[in-house]
């Protein structure tokens, strides 16, 4: 049985300082947790802006480069994102109101589908779930009011996000050096973990989101050409569904194609099917080209990470959730490898290496044989030396 490893010397020699460090970490996490999603959003934003920061640092100081990068993020990313989400929420409310007020002729759609050989009772289905739809609409309106009413808290959160992003862009290298110095893990293992996490962030935050954005914009443009209502809402929905494996844009263009066929636009429906298939197939080429291969990602980790991340971290969990699960897998893999290597090393040392100051035991028979062989060797040496002397004297 391998011996239990001894605690580190620094933890034994200075227990009070070790306890104080643990208390400081716990208190720091307690302060960060209420705004954890905004801190994570700042980390994601800083990671996205890092290439821009490095290019700007060739010409200006890191502080000025970080300031320009943050302003660029606000103008190019945050403001358009807020506008798109606002339009999508408005279109959602208009769609629900149209269904409730009867502006959308469900009976006509039902009749068109029945003429093509499919019996669907959309009216009965709507009447069955009318209370649920009304409750959902009311909940959506309440959620919007909560967001508007919680603007001070939202502004505080966005301020934290921007300051975290600014600090990481300006002092990112110093932070990495601090982590290497503070975290009690070998530098080689830390470097390996950071490289794996960098690949996860690249795959989840940049490449995966970029693929989803490209497909959402392509499909949204096609829907706009066909005159489909609520294009912004459907584009946002396409973006979210494309992040999920085995779903993608298929979950949007297929129902819209069925709707177009039901309302008597078969040519538009067929064109959308062909165009939607092209958008869906583009995922086969875009995703491997931009994401590449990483051993920590598979379909289960992505799906569970996205939905679990949304619940645990809010909207930013859409990107952070898969990274957290993939990072947990990487850490456990490294831990298992190091534990196995340490066990093998300890076992080899205990069984193979001789104990210092000890000699192997010998039996009496082995000792007698060894003495006899030594005596024969000495006798042979004496004979050889005498023969050599005689030959020399004769010469």
From TrEMBL:
Family: Belongs to the autoinducer-2 exporter (AI-2E) (TC 2.A.86) family.
Biased composition (Acidic residues): 383-395
Keyword rRNA processing annotated: no
InterPro entries referenced in this protein's UniProt entry, alphabetically: AI-2E-like (IPR002549)
Keyword Methyltransferase: no
UniProt-annotated stretches for the region Disordered: 343-395
Domain of life: Archaea
Protein name: Permease
Membrane topology of the entry: Multi-pass membrane protein
Transmembrane segments: 20-50, 62-85, 150-169, 205-226, 232-254, 266-285, 297-320
GO cellular component terms attached to this protein's record: membrane
Compositionally biased intervals (Low complexity): 343-353
One Pfam match: AI-2E_transport
Organism: Haloterrigena salina JCM 13891
Location within or outside the cell: Membrane
Keywords: Membrane, Transmembrane, Transmembrane helix
């Amino acid at each position: 049985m391998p011996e239990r490893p001894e605690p580190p010397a620094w933890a034994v020699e200075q227990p009070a300082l070790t306890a104080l460090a643990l208390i400081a970490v716990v208190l720091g996490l307690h302060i960060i947790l209420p705004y954890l999603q905004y801190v994570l959003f700042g980390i994601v934003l800083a990671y996205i802006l890092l290439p821009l920061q490095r290019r700007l640092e060739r010409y200006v100081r890191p502080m000025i480069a970080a300031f320009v990068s943050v302003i660029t993020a606000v103008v190019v990313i945050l403001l358009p994102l807020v506008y798109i989400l606002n339009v999508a929420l408005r279109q959602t409310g208009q769609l629900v109101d149209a269904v409730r007020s009867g502006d959308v002729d469900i009976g006509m759609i039902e009749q068109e589908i029945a003429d093509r050989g499919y019996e669907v009772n959309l009216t009965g289905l709507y009447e069955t779930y009318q209370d649920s739809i009304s409750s959902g609409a009311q909940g959506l309106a309440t959620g919007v009011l909560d967001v508007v009413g919680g603007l001070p808290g939202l502004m505080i959160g966005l301020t934290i996000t921007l300051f975290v992003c600014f600090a990481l862009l300006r002092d990112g290298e110093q932070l990495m050096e601090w982590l290497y110095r503070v975290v009690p893990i070998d530098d080689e293992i830390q470097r390996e973990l950071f490289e794996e996490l960098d690949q996860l962030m690249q795959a989840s935050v940049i490449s995966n989101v970029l693929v989803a954005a490209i497909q959402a914009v392509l499909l949204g443009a096609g829907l706009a050409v066909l005159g489909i209502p609520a294009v912004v809402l459907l584009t946002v929905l396409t973006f979210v569904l494309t992040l999920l494996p085995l779903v993608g844009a298929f979950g949007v263009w297929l129902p819209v194609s069925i709707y177009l066929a039901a309302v008597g636009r078969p040519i538009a429906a067929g064109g959308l099917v062909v165009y939607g298939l092209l958008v869906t197939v583009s995922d086969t080429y875009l995703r491997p080209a931009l994401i590449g291969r990483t051993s920590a990602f598979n379909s289960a980790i992505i799906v569970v990470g996205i939905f679990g991340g949304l619940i645990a971290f809010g909207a930013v969990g859409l990107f952070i959730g898969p990274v957290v699960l993939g990072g947990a897998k990487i850490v456990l893999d490294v831990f298992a490898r190091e534990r196995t290597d340490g066990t093998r090393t300890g076992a080899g040392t205990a069984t193979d290496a001789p104990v210092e100051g000890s000699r192997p035991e010998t039996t009496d028979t082995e000792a007698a044989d060894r003495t006899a062989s030594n005596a024969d060797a000495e006798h042979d040496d004496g004979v050889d030396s005498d023969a050599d002397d005689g030959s020399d004297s004769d010469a």
